[in-house]
Amino acid sequence: MIEPHAPAPPGSPPPWGGPGGPLGPGAGAPAPLPVRPGTGRFLVLAGVFVCAACGLVYELELVALASYLIGDSVTQASVVLSVMVFAMGVGSLAAKRLRRFAAAGFGAVEAVLALVGGSSAMVLYAVFAWTGDWGGLWADGPRFLLVAFSLAIGLLIGAEVPLLMELIQRIRRQDAGGAVADLFAADYVGALVGGLAFPFVLLPFLGQLTGALLTGTVNAVVGAALVLGLFRRDLSRRARWLLLSANAVVLAVLATATVLADDFERAARHAVYGQDVRVAVQTDVQEVVLTGDTDGRPLGLFLDGRLRVGAGDERRYHEALVHPAMTGRHARVLILGGGDGLAAREVLRHPGVRRVDIVEFDPGLARLARHDPGLSELNDHAYGDPRVRLTPADAFARLRTTPPASYDVVISDLPDPGITASTKLYSQEFYGLARRVLAPGGRLVVHAGPVSSRPRAFWTVESTLRAAGLRTAAYRVRAGTDGFTAGPDRAAGPSHAPRDWGFVLAARRPPALALDPSGPRPHTLTPATLRAAARSATHTHVPALPASTLLHPRY
């Protein structure tokens, strides 16, 4: 049982947290609760549960948004989590000075945390949309804005722990070990709920912006209700009004932002993609945006902000990807990726093709390629051909279940290996599976990213193919003026566009880099330009690179 404080000496001024101060009783005084101590303890632990769930949602939101906007999710997750955990320790130390005013301090911390965490996604996306390069802070230096939010949120989350511990002990004194166990149990269970709610509820149903704003609203309401409802007698009238006003302002800001979220997202999308956005959908896998294809403007297909298809330039890419691999037998063709149907368009131009299997991880993209008038016209209505079969699946898993020697040609039309989610699809294990499904004399072609800007990554792909038991022929094709990218660069502008695309043709025996003389004539590729493409790639060769594996990715 908590012993009452000794009375202050006669004539001494009241302490800041004492009865005469603005914040109410000091630390260690029995909490004058409006409920029974057992009920009060349960309510505090319930508040811990909710606040922990909100805190983890903020962390995951920063990781997801940074990975989406910048790429390389491993690096972004490492930056966010390491900075946040460090800041939590600093916040816990700093909050020791607030333990005398635990109730008021906790209420203020939750109000600020709700505002910072709830608005973080909108602020980050606004900076990305209207500056393009994060105000010059992202390209080569530290991710200052991401670090700033991670640091601020971590400091506030860390400050919760000592304040909540003080509030729990003021309700009913118990040994430190038991109090810590109760606090951490509620905290970790709340983190579990928040961690599961983010990918399965908030992200798919509300999106990143509204999900973060709603989380901030819940955080503010629970924090204010806990302090103003359970510990209101600890606060002076002035402190109660200050805390109530602060939370009202926070809730008003978050509510206004939620109402304007759709308008903000449309304006930001126009800032990123231009004013001719025609289709914008969030599939289960990625954001898909179609621009142009009206009033004479060329069609653009953006996947997670990357210009994946530019109608003025995509033929150069897809012809270079497909036609060298179609020299020889090509009755059975497997396309890994290529949900836009453009690689299939080039395959179907060749006589003798009996079957084309497309393995696309995002069925939403394939649906758009089948039904959107502009995109389906661009791919020559490839999905309407009875020889084309779509399998929504992960390419790695699909190859593992494919019988050996099933295909004459395998076309790997996948994102750049610099994108973390694609790294396993450029591994020695993956190419070993691709080698197994090739029929005798079969060929595999791989898009391996830009050569001029990432020669080491390109030649690592080539080295990995050789490590999988394949012989290779590398070539690169210079990009045109449209500047679409299959790699990790986010912007579509000319200054961000790749100068070239690199490809590797592979087979069990040394493959001949040539065009099928009996096949269709490509619009942008000739035998002479293909030979020049091979010589151009050879000039960039980086020797003796180790292969990339699942356990040791090297991109």
From TrEMBL:
Annotated localization: Cell membrane
UniProt keyword Transcription regulation, yes or no: no
Signal peptide stretch: none
Catalytic activity of the protein: S-adenosyl 3-(methylsulfanyl)propylamine + putrescine = S-methyl-5'-thioadenosine + spermidine + H(+)
Pathway: Amine and polyamine biosynthesis; spermidine biosynthesis; spermidine from putrescine: step 1/1
MF-aspect GO terms: spermidine synthase activity; thermospermine synthase activity
Sites where the protein binds spermidine: 318, 340
Function text: Catalyzes the irreversible transfer of a propylamine group from the amino donor S-adenosylmethioninamine (decarboxy-AdoMet) to putrescine (1,4-diaminobutane) to yield spermidine.
Family: Belongs to the spermidine/spermine synthase family.
Protein name: Polyamine aminopropyltransferase
Gene that encodes it: speE
